[in-house]
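Course exercise 7: structure representation. Students receive a sequence record and must write out the corresponding structure in token form. The form below is the worked example handed out in class, using TMSB4X protein (117 residues). Read each field label carefully; the graders check that inputs and outputs are placed in the correct fields and that the protein name is recorded exactly as given.

STUDENT ID: A-19
EXERCISE PROTEIN: TMSB4X protein
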Amino acid sequence: MGDKPDVSEVTKFDSGKLKHVETQEKNPLPTEQTINLEKAAERSSKIIEGLDPSKLKHAETNVKDTKPDAEAMHQDRAALTAAAVSGFDKSKLKHAETTEKTHLPTKEEIEAEKAGK
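STUDENT ANSWER:
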């Protein structure tokens, strides 16, 4: 129980084998701007706490929802399309062969189908 730990390995350790490491502060102090924001929030909450709701006046909210008309939307779309098309580089396209996948029935196939129903 009263044994002393062996410290010889610690004292013999070559500290030259250690890599250099830059210390990074993980808990920086707040900036002056952060402190001022917190103070302003604290003052605002104290003001709100002191308000008497019975002294407040009723206010109507007037919501104005303006949407662009169809002509403005068409002009915007046309301008975007023109910009995209004018800057397109055809030389970057790869050649592709078109394969017809649609089969149109012959007159005989149509007649056979009609007869089957």
